[in-house]
Design brief:
It is built from 12 helices and 6 strands. It is mainly alpha-helical and 327 residues long. The chain folds into 2 domains: 141 residues, Peroxidase, domain 1 (Orthogonal Bundle); 136 residues, Peroxidase, domain 2, CATH 1.10.420.10. Belongs to the peroxidase family. Classical plant (class III) peroxidase subfamily.
Length: 327
């Protein structure tokens, strides 16, 4: 056998192996884990570093980024439409008035445009930022898929029909989650995001009321009275005042939220019903007693959340600025 024939016989299986490996590389899919491995290998590092830096200056940032992702993905999918500014956009709806974290995303995007211009979408920046926010506050590291495209449409009229109100019943929440491809279990898991962050008193004022003489009235029978009294005191300054979602470990992503539910200290009606209803109580109890189970399930549910209605290909664009379309 000649040298040429020997080389060919050696190279053919090697070529086949190369093709197989090449086809499995992250960029071969329009939406996959490691999508930017070759087009912008520092993308995830840049977002993570930006979130870490912002959090060191302001520990409320992680909760803001996480909430921002929920409000984005539930309205027309995870396409960064909530980041667009202008009349009639999602941001002008009163339900989104208290959203924050926009500057962190803008900062990350500016750096990305320096190193990888026109490559990384704002939708991916938001999803990655929210994922890193959880990890930076003690939660699990979740490797999510990337390759989202940015939406070109943002309408305030789409907000209210697509987000959870704090006064919702379990059936109302379950119906909305199912419409997004999420389950009742996902509802319990993702509600654990309330283990960090804060809320304005106006968002739960219907649960407790204080008259002019200081008498406290409970409109939520299952709410712990001592906890309600503390809330009333904290909210004495008015509806614009705010309290921590989880008064025990407010800046730590852990399973304390579920322990609070079992103690009848759920801040919102939409929290309390998770323990009050037999359909979800078992999972609440599991997570309250086993943080590892919560973290494992969080990874699965968060991946699903961050994949809702993803736009790929020519369905969207890669914005130069997260607050405006490229038009």
């Amino acid at each position: 056998m000649g040298d040429a024939e020997a080389i060919l016989r050696f190279r053919e299986p090697m070529l086949l192996l190369f093709v197989i490996l090449f086809s499995a590389l992250p960029f071969s899919s329009a939406f996959s884990v490691g999508f930017y491995t070759f087009s912008c290998p520092t993308a995830e590092f840049i977002v993570r570093d930006t979130v870490r830096s912002a959090t060191s200056d302001d520990p409320t940032i992680p909760a803001k980024l996480l909430r921002l992702l929920f409000h984005d993905c539930f309205v027309d999918g995870c396409d960064a439409s909530v980041l667009l500014e202008g009349d009639g956009t999602e941001r002008v709806d009163p339900a989104n008035a208290s959203l924050g974290g926009f500057r962190v995303l803008d900062s990350a995007k500016r750096v990305l445009e320096m190193f990888c211009p026109g490559i990384v979408s704002c939708a991916d920046v938001l999803a990655l930022a929210a994922s890193h926010a959880v990890a930076l506050t003690g939660g699990p590291e979740v490797r999510i898929a990337t390759g989202r495209r940015d939406g070109r449409v943002s309408a305030a009229s789409n907000v209210r029909p697509n987000i959870i109100d704090t006064s919702f019943t379990l059936d109302q929440m379950a119906s909305l989650f199912i419409s997004k491809g999420l389950s009742l279990d996902d509802l319990v898991v993702l509600s654990g995001a309330h283990t960090i962050g804060s809320a304005h008193c106006s968002s739960f004022s219907d649960r407790i009321q204080v008259d002019s003489k200081g008498k406290l009235t409970f409109n939520a029978p299952s709410l712990n009275h001592s906890y309600a009294a503390r809330l009333a005191k904290l909210c004495a300054a008015g509806a614009a005042a705010s309290v921590k979602n989880d008064p025990e470990t407010s800046f730590l992503f852990d399973n304390q939220y579920y322990k609070n539910l079992m103690a009848h200290e759920g801040l919102f009606q939409s929290d309390s019903v998770l323990f009050d209803d037999q359909r979800t109580r078992t999972l609440v109890e599991l997570f309250a007693n086993d943080e590892g189970s919560f973290f494992d399930r969080w990874g699965e549910s968060f991946f699903k959340l961050s994949s809702i209605g993803v736009k790929t290909g020519d369905e969207g664009e890669i914005r130069h600025s997260c607050s405006s379309t490229n038009d």
